[in-house]
Design brief:
The structure holds 2 protein chains of 2 kinds. Chain A is an alpha+beta fold. Helix content of chain A is 45%, strand content 15%. In chain A, a hairpin with a 2-residue loop joins strand 9 and strand 10. In chain A, helix 9 packs across helix 10 and helix 17 packs antiparallel against helix 18. About 4% of the residues of chain A have low confidence. By secondary structure, chain B is an all-alpha fold. Chain B is 76% helix and 0% strand. Chain B starts with a helix and ends with a helix. Classes of the chains: A alpha+beta, B mainly alpha.
Chain lengths: 412, 294
């Protein structure tokens, strides 16, 4: 009897001993995400909860900011010496983050299994100068969404294969009185406008830079901006596009006020959700069109990665968290708003079910992803280009002059 | 008690405050001045001494002149409108009527809202697809079609000014209302008996009492308006085509987005200098008004 009590006590102490370290030896990570496009805030929270369950000794504090604040918030936190352990970063920042030592080089932590399993295009998101500065997480590009019902009413059999055809189809829809302005874009003075522009630059076979110097003012870069201006002036493009961000485009499309819209992956399942969307079940998606003789499809690399900051005091735990968030299991489970980085996921019925159309578009679009320029001065270049796009749309300058000025102000 | 001991004790008592002031205001200011003469980056390099390069570059750039003009327009028009609206509202709320207390309370609301909330609110009102302003104006047949208020350079700045006025006129109204309480009843009554009309009563009887407090409101609002950042950043981020970019946004872009701490610091100091000049000019004016009133 006594013996068994003793054993129970011993057992209790043992169990207690197991519990104690969990309660006290806790590491807290601070992670910065965005509240816009791709995975929703709710998705990120439940992924993180799953991680916390599997790793009770690590606590993750999440912070969400709009995309427009993500870069500056990361850099400012770094500048003030404190801040985040894990940050989400856009494909355009690794050059700057690597040069200024915002992120740590994690090349040694990328395993061969990762290298083999992840789609080759995804790695460009996190690489600079041959080194890896994180794991790709959001694999994204802009697709051409269309409203099947409106196209049907207009007697259009298939969505456009070229940008020229897009204009023609929009004209038919306009002439038949189905919509006043059938195309919606995100051309606000923001990075969103650069993503639309880049899609067109890739279609027209343009170059942002040549030997480190601006080249967007010539050839395909110029044709891309001219296309935007023509579409705007012809009245086929919703004139409010010049103050739209992605979320505005989504609302216009979901309200049935756009026949065509360029947007990221996340819009597909959101616009198909009858709770918020008036066009649920009528959403079509194809890769962004090409230009006859130059390209079949077009796409911008809008991917994002997760990295460990140089100021983090818990770099191992931070990497563990990133591994979990980017793992195939996690990504397959949340494949509705953002598609996985893992090649084999695209043949997994659990991922493709109910979004076969999107997967088909993704296979073509993701393979054609065109990068925005890789330079530590990206922010300045982008700001100059945003101004050029808006001035051309508003008729304050010709596309030629506006792009020339942007090239001078790009800092390159 | 001797005078010197009083002085010493006064300094001793103020010492903790002075130390804190030097630490949180003095040192950063000195460091900003130092930075402004270097080509330092925000993260990474500490930078080399470059003399007045940053200043000449900034002052001669077309960005600076354009932004200065935009900011001046914004400040002058919004402050003027706020002063007029504020005084009118104060005169109204100084009358005796039922529900005055409720109305006085309600008036504070816009001013009590955080600017970011106010800006988001107005962005919804101005929304080109489903905004309340477009709906109201089309239903009243004032405009035929929905418009992009924040997307056109012609209307974006005006739209921002309206939003700023809505938020800030209550402050002026509050100050003016407080001053109105101090106007002696017998003087206004005497003016009425003497046959002075409403305008003359305001101009010659009430306004002298308001001048001092209003000057304070004017100084505060002008300085604030000149430094405007948040309301513009949330509503247009300086667009369309940089037509609403204020000086503070330019400083922010230079120092934080482009990470050029050196030239960002020089620009910030130029703005500080401009605001200081304004403040000193007003302070002199206030002294003069106070002197003439006495």
């Amino acid at each position: 009897m006594l013996k068994s009590i003793g054993k129970t006590l011993l057992g209790a102490v043992f169990v207690g001993g197991l519990l104690v370290p969990h309660a006290f030896a806790e590491t807290t990570l601070n992670a910065l995400f965005m509240a816009q496009a791709a995975y929703s805030e709710a998705d990120v929270r439940s992924m993180t909860e799953a991680f916390a369950k599997a790793n009770p000794d690590i606590k993750v504090n999440l912070e969400f900011v709009p995309y427009e604040g993500l870069h500056d918030k990361t850099v400012l936190a770094q500048g003030s010496g404190g801040g985040y352990d894990v940050v989400l970063f856009d494909v355009i920042w690794p050059a700057e983050y690597a040069t200024n030592k915002v992120l740590v080089d994690v090349s040694s932590k990328i395993t061969d299994d990762m290298k083999k399993g992840v789609l080759p295009g995804a790695w460009t998101t996190v690489q600079y100068d041959g080194k890896y500065y994180g794991m790709p997480w959001i694999l994204d590009t802009k697709y051409l969404f269309y409203n099947k019902e409106i196209l049907e009413k207009a007697g259009i059999k298939a969505p456009p294969k070229t940008w020229e055809e897009l204009g023609q189809q929009a004209k038919i829809i306009q002439d038949k009185g189905l919509l006043k302005t059938p195309i919606a874009w995100s051309w606000s003075q923001a990075e969103a406008a650069i993503c639309d522009y880049t899609t067109l630059v890739s279609a027209y076979g343009g170059d942002f830079l040549k030997e480190g110097k601006p080249d967007f003012q010539n050839g395909g870069g110029l044709s891309a901006l001219k296309y935007m201006v023509d579409s705007y002036k012809s009245g086929l493009t919703n004139p409010n596009s010049k103050e739209f961000l992605e979320e505005d485009v989504r609302k216009v499309f979901e309200n049935g006020d756009a026949a065509f819209a360029l947007n990221w992956t996340y819009m597909y399942n959101m616009a198909n959700d009858p709770k918020d969307s008036k066009v649920a079940g009528k959403v079509g998606v194809v890769p962004a069109p090409g230009v006859a003789g130059t390209s079949e499809v077009s796409a911008v690399n809008g991917s994002m990665g997760l990295g460990v900051t140089a100021v983090s005091k818990h770099q191992d735990e931070a990497w563990k968290y990133i591994e979990f968030m980017t793992s195939q299991a996690t990504q397959n489970q949340y494949a509705k708003l953002s598609l996985p980085i893992w090649a084999s996921s695209y043949d997994d019925p659990a991922v493709t079910k109910g979004q076969e159309e999107l997967i088909a578009a993704a296979k073509l679009g993701l393979a054609a992803m065109y990068p925005r320029p890789t330079t530590p001065k990206y922010q300045q270049l982008s700001t100059a280009l945003q101004q050029a796009i808006q001035e051309s749309l508003l008729g304050q300058a010709t596309p030629e002059d506006a792009l020339k000025t942007a090239a001078e102000n790009s800092g390159l | 008690m001797s005078g010197t001991w009083m002085t010493t004790r006064a300094w001793l008592l103020m010492l903790p405050l002075l130390v804190i002031m030097v630490a949180v205001i003095g040192w950063p200011l000195v460091d900003t001045v130092r930075l402004s003469f270097t080509d330092a980056q925000l993260v990474g390099t500490a930078g080399n001494y470059v003399g007045f390069d940053n200043y000449t570059k900034m002052l001669t750039s077309s960005n600076f002149t354009r932004t200065l003009t935009t900011t001046t327009w914004f400040a002058v028009i919004s402050v003027a409108a706020e002063m007029v609206l504020g005084v009118l509202a104060a005169l109204l709320l100084n009358q005796e009527f039922r529900g005055r207390a409720v109305l006085r309370g309600l008036m504070i609301l816009p001013w009590a809202l955080p600017t970011v909330v106010n800006a988001t609110l107005w962005r919804l009102i101005y929304n080109p697809e489903y905004g309340a302003l477009n709906a109201a104006l089309t239903q009243l047949h004032i405009i035929d079609d929905y418009r992009s208020w924040l997307g056109e350079p012609g209307t974006a700045l005006a739209a921002l000014i309206v939003a700023d006025c809505w938020k800030n006129f209550p402050l002026v109204a509050l100050i003016a209302l407080a001053a109105l309480q101090a106007v002696p009843r017998d003087i206004t009554a005497a003016a009425l008996v003497d046959g002075a009309g409403p305008f003359n009563r305001f101009r010659f009887v009430i306004l002298p009492y308001l001048a001092g407090p209003l000057m304070v409101a004017l100084v505060l609002r002008t300085i604030e308006a000149f430094k405007v950042f948040d309301i513009i950043w949330v509503m247009t981020r300086g667009g369309p085509a940089n037509s609403t970019r204020s000086l503070s946004i330019l400083v922010y872009q230079e120092a934080f987005s482009f990470q050029r701490a050196g030239s960002g610091a020089s620009l910030a100091l130029i703005v500080t200098l401009l605001v200081t000049v304004l403040a000193v000019a007003y302070a002199t004016l206030v002294k003069k008004t106070a002197g003439s009133a006495a």
